[in-house]
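User
New here, help please:
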Amino acid sequence: MGHLHTGSCLCGAAKFELDGEFKKFFLCHCSRCRKTSGSAHCANLFAPGATIKWLSGEDKLSYYHLEGSHFARTFCSVCGSNVPTDAKARSLVVVPAGCLDTDVDITAQAHIFTGSKGNWDEGLDKVPSFEGMPT
């Protein structure tokens, strides 16, 4: 496939290698993504036809699928970090952008499900920013 990426969870127990190209990059504001991330949105990359190889920690992975939906998450049972979900039935790997250790050559293409975003998720571009923890 020619596009090789590596990534890991926060504690480093789960490490992976993904061979495939990211075709979509969405920032999803749906209530499910907000709950699983604890933040305003999830930043998910979509790699149709990609293959994932777990280099370590596959035995530490937990999987959650919301019945009656396509919503699923794979996460490290040690640190709780979201890691890629291999949706084999859909021939798709969904990769949380934050778990990648390599750069990607695609930028976010859209904010999606903004109709259900949190009421506090407005005007965040106007909030002061700091390179580190403010004093």
User: Anything to note?
Assistant: DSSP finds one helix and eleven strands in the chain.
